[in-house]
Every structure is written in structure tokens, then in C-alpha cells.
User: Fold this.
Amino acid sequence: QVQLVESGGGLVQPGGSLRLSCAASVSIFSLDFMGWYRQAQGKERELVAVITKSGGTNYADSMKGRFTISRDNAKNTVYLQMSSLKLEDTAVYYCHAALSIYRYWGQGTQVTVSS
Assistant:
């Protein structure tokens, strides 16, 4: 069983920045990939960014150039650095991990972009 704990959400003004963290209960080297998804109220959950075991990254088009996913192997933590935040980035952000056929989710952290 893999446990994921997110932190770092909060209220930020448009154009601001925020960094989310996701701490895993296992070595992230053992995971096939980790990533961030988000779900805005009334909408489906969507991919934000993923980082693979080998360090490759992939982003949703609307996040490219604004968001950066990274990891700290020693801390078993994955980060999502968000910049130039927009009102439409408001959502609950979920950490996600995959190991073989298994999928794991964190509890989510709220990000609210508002003036």
C-alpha cells in the first residue's frame, strides 16, 4: 500500500505562485510514475503533470511553461511548482502514483486563485 500526502495548497492571487508537495510512504524509485491531477468544481479530474521513474516529464498543454514537476528522491517527495496562476487553475489538486497495475491517490489539496 502506498500512501500519498499532499501539502502546500492555499489561496493565491492571479499571477502568483504556489508549490505543492506530495510525500510518498515508499521510495519513489519503486514507483513507475508519479503525477498531479486536478478537479475543479463541476468538472472531471484532469491530468496536470507526470514524472516517470527515469525522470521524464509530461504536462497538459494548458500548464506547459507555467507548471514544473520535480522530485526529491531522498525525501520521497514530488513537487509541483505553479507560476502565473490563473483563476481557472482553481481546483483540488491530487497526487497520483502508479506501481504496476495499482494506482494510488492522495487526499487532495485545495488551490484557490482569487483576487
Observations:
- The chain has a mean pLDDT of 96.
- The first strand starts at residue 4 and ends at 7.
- The two ends are 40 Å apart (CA to CA).
